[in-house]
Amino acid sequence: MNEIVFWIAPIAAIAALVYARGFYKEMIRQDQGTALMQEIGGHVSRGAMAYLWQQYKIMLVVFAALAVVFAVLAYQFHVQSTWLPVTFLCGGFFSALAGYFGMKTATQASTRTAAAARTSLPDALRIAFRSGAVMGLVVVGLGLGNIVFWFILANLLIPAGDTGETHRMVLITTTTLTFGMGASLQAMFARVGGGIFTKAADVGADLVGKVESGIPEDDPRNPAVIADNVGDNVGDVAGMGADLFESYVGSILAASALGAAAFMHDPALQMKAVVAPIMIAGLGILLSILGVYLVKTEEGANQKQLLDALGRGINSSAAMIVVVSLAFLFLLGMPNVWGIWGAVIAGLVSGVIIGRSTEYYTSPSYSPTRQIASQAEGGAATLVIAGIGVGMLSTAIPVLTVGAGTLLAFLFASGFDPSQMNQGLYGVGIAAVGMLSTLGITLASDAYGPIADNAGGNAEMSGLGPDVRARTDALDALGNTTAATGKGFAIGSAALTALALLASYVEVVRMELIKIGTTVLTLGHGTTVPTDTATLTDFMTYYSVNLLNPTVLVGVLIGAMVAFAFSGMTVQAVGRAALLMVEEVRRQFREDAGILKGTSQPDYERCVAISTLGAQREMVVPALIAVIAPVVTGLLLGVAGVIGLLVGGLSSGFVLAVFLSNSGGAWDNAKKHIEAGHHGGKNSRAHRAAVIGDTVGDPFKDTSGPSLNILIKLMSIVAIIMAGVTVTYSLL
Amino acid sequence: MNEIVFWIAPIAAIAALVYARGFYKEMIRQDQGTALMQEIGGHVSRGAMAYLWQQYKIMLVVFAALAVVFAVLAYQFHVQSTWLPVTFLCGGFFSALAGYFGMKTATQASTRTAAAARTSLPDALRIAFRSGAVMGLVVVGLGLGNIVFWFILANLLIPAGDTGETHRMVLITTTTLTFGMGASLQAMFARVGGGIFTKAADVGADLVGKVESGIPEDDPRNPAVIADNVGDNVGDVAGMGADLFESYVGSILAASALGAAAFMHDPALQMKAVVAPIMIAGLGILLSILGVYLVKTEEGANQKQLLDALGRGINSSAAMIVVVSLAFLFLLGMPNVWGIWGAVIAGLVSGVIIGRSTEYYTSPSYSPTRQIASQAEGGAATLVIAGIGVGMLSTAIPVLTVGAGTLLAFLFASGFDPSQMNQGLYGVGIAAVGMLSTLGITLASDAYGPIADNAGGNAEMSGLGPDVRARTDALDALGNTTAATGKGFAIGSAALTALALLASYVEVVRMELIKIGTTVLTLGHGTTVPTDTATLTDFMTYYSVNLLNPTVLVGVLIGAMVAFAFSGMTVQAVGRAALLMVEEVRRQFREDAGILKGTSQPDYERCVAISTLGAQREMVVPALIAVIAPVVTGLLLGVAGVIGLLVGGLSSGFVLAVFLSNSGGAWDNAKKHIEAGHHGGKNSRAHRAAVIGDTVGDPFKDTSGPSLNILIKLMSIVAIIMAGVTVTYSLL
Hints:
The structure is a homodimer. The first copy, chain A, is an all-alpha fold. The first copy, chain A, is built from 22 helices and two strands. A two-stranded antiparallel ribbon of chain A has the order 1-2. Chain A is globular, with a radius of gyration of 25 Å. The two termini of chain A are 47 Å apart.
């Protein structure tokens, strides 16, 4: 194996952080515009930071409490990895740090983007996109950097013992998996809290401002307008970043753990299999940085040209990773290079197809969204029905894509020999890594969206001219498209990551069984196999993880139910928090008539505080459900029930998330389609119906849908770290 | 074994049909009221029959085509039971016959109920309820009668061969299972077609009549009013009847097949295990007839007293079956009597809890529906969001109940020995039979609902006095409660039946493997077992039906997706059909101004024809999807993929159905709560929002939700009858 392969990941991680810093410095140097623009930007920036600190405070309490629980389980009851209390806190800390940097950048960047838009579209795009890239690169840099750090540390500290080198490597990889728990829990708070914040503000601002008082969107007279802009940052920047930080870290760690297990017969091969996903991730970072420089446009570019500009960056990175990863897999000396490479491509292509499918179902350029818009002529009811129908039908392509991608990755990596289950599942892990390899640049295009959106808001509130707003509108529309595809990508990667984590769970169970002295598995018909060489199939037989075992079936049913109940909770949370916001905005209008006349300033801070409070109050219960469900299921139904739960949650959660996100996205764009002059245009009967559909879709697409990504990953990670407790104490 | 036990089922089946005839004759003798009442009743009755014949014509084509396919598969390719072409047509015919009788009775009964309501509440209740009992008893009578007939015929015609008596019994039970296919497919057409018909008419009538023209519900000036009343019959009587006919037949057949497999070591025990579910069903019929006579009330009874009157009949039947079934299980000489009895009770109690939970989440007497109503003050958007939140949360209790019921039935019947999987799964089948044992009377209370609803419509359209309408309103309100609990019961029984069918699938696969000469299963680690004595667990190992096999996982994902895509299709179908109705009603109002003045009669037939056409056009594709999905999955992914598909479809479909039904029911009652004077009452802002919510909920609760019951059962039955094709031709 070539020495250089080892160095790619650390170099790439450092490069990501260096370039992120560079892009940040470049952005900070730009003109901030007029005093009014800076004042508005300051409101948003302070509001976002205030929210973030508040969220971090609550998280600190939850994390501290859980760390104590983990410490007791680890040091008192010896049913927990002794690393967990530390890795857990680190995972949470670095995920939060990435969110902090990303959001700080985004809030600074939107004022400067608006300022640049006064004179130049290309400059505005460059500022907004490279600021988005700060988020993308910080996420992948901190993620991969941490993985490398923990691997090296585990390699140094975990002794060889008398179970041999291959066994030690399995222990190292399953130990580093514990880092995912903190990242996952922080992602849950960021997604759910951010999602509730942003939609409470959005719904509240719209219902009183647009519907009741008839003032336009982003009007500075609306007290909730700053909270709405803050929400874009805490939901779509910090929330999305934490979500993908977790997918990124989880997929790499899971793939490495599966690699260690798949090649236990040969220490040299095992090492390569563990390194491969980390290497691919490193290559992806370097190519993402390259891709960022390819995103540029010209003055007066239309929507298609702008989309092409982004596409150039993203697609070039993806195309290059296809070529480069093959070369480096050869350099690494992997066995079955073509199969592993096939798995990388299966993941990459799946991500592209899901993104395209999302675009088709939610863009006003295609028939599904246009049909929803035409149903607005029958009123709000038929529009809502149509949107739900489209959302449900839109689940077909993503599910079939992930299904085909998973099967192909499995078949490629197993050399088309289904009995090689370990190798095949390693391929599924590699596919997840492949899909996320160019996350540096795909996440940049996601984080770009809210920056452009806020730049538009700033331009509107600062009263900049129509030509400036035309530029920010163009950038904003581009952001809406990337937001939709970004959501599809986040869901798809969460599903693949959860699949990979599922297989890792069984590897962790193996370690736990060995720890408690179960050295032999009895498989029925008098067959026994040693625990440390048993195949994954043997574990399935040992625990009866088959689909006629009622324990498994009940687990699957509960998993499906948890996905729905969790969504119900988050949807209701938005409703409750939005109602508080509605009351506050009505109160301000009532008590100070000068606000609507524009003579006195509304109390923006109060609205930010209300959204913050609502989000904080509502985010804890859904988050805890994701933590508690696998623990309780494990204690009652054992390993078989837990696997059932994870599969039920994964399948229903994935499909439900696609449905919710696409329904919401399609309603949003059906409204925009009508506002563009179709079916009577603005303020028509159809438009009023479309506003209702858009509002219904808000919590669908920005709270419940994205939160489900985290639910399915967090339940898997909790199952993994609680494997010791399940194996030792389960009832059935 | 006592001789009498054998005679219970045929006697009960005949008794059911005799009493059904008696109740029908009794109803026909009643006064039909004024000429106007008879005319209106005639419109509804003719419309319903016209729809039914149209549906049967299309079904005839589809059934004939499929029968040919089955005949070719059976006689040409020898990969299909030679019985199927005949049993398939019979299953469809008798299911349709039950629907025909039930609907003929219901349409005749509503005029007479309205006529009786002119003088007496008790008389009106008696007529309506006993007419509902005609449906209930015809369904169970024809269902059980057919089962007995096919068992006897199979017993006579299937030779002993050289594989022994116990093997022959497995063959007999798996052969009779094919009867379920026709019943299931006819149920699909009845539920989907009826569901689209009724909601297209309802939504169309409401949008133009109530919302646009401001005329009250059931106003004779509304051209769609007759179609709306017809819809109640074709959807809630014929559709619900076909749904439960299938659950009833499917659960009994599945339990018998599982019994034959579970006791293959002992022919005497095996016979008892096959007979037990049939016997319990027979006892349930006799007790249901008894229960019907307990339903009576007094003049001036309030809602609670009316509910108690119904409850007396249903609960007495349920309580008696608990006692009587224990006695007869002893008489039958079943082994593990207490365990089997425990399974019966687990099923019965689960049904009751699900019904109660449905009532809690959808009745305006409890907080969930009231909270939805209070959200109407924020407008349609917050109301819709709240209803979706409540519906999603309401999935928890039914899922946990079915989960607990399944596990307990399994543990009881297996004597708390999880390795006795065959016995345990037989217990799950028995639980499904237990839940459905008193179907004769529970279905009576379902079919009662639309009769009372139509009686109210007739009273309104005939201009009867307010005291008459007070009586029909009381009966109608009672019907709304029974409709909600009936829906919960239909979903719960579908889930349990599908679980039992899942295990039967593997038994059918065993028969198919033996047929193609696979006499030995290789299980890995050098273990082999003979196919005809292999346990269900062995089959799971042989086919790798475990949750790490990507084939299974992809199957689960596809199953979950099919449930959503199928719902999306049916929801959109209602939207499209409703739009045609809206246009027709608008056209009639526009072209004849006399209609709204009340001087000329609208063209009712035209609206019925439009709903009929819409339903016919839209019902075929969703129905075919349910047929095609298991076949294609089987050909591509094999047995493991099919089982994954069934479990994915079952889990997501069950949860999704509960969500859709309960959201829809809760919106409906939130509207009624507001109409009762809360939050501003009728014609307030909140009421307008609630009407939108109710309209969104219409296809949820009456089309997509109930159709999912059939989807999960039909996919299982198709998998069973296509097992030969899957085993012989699958790719993976």
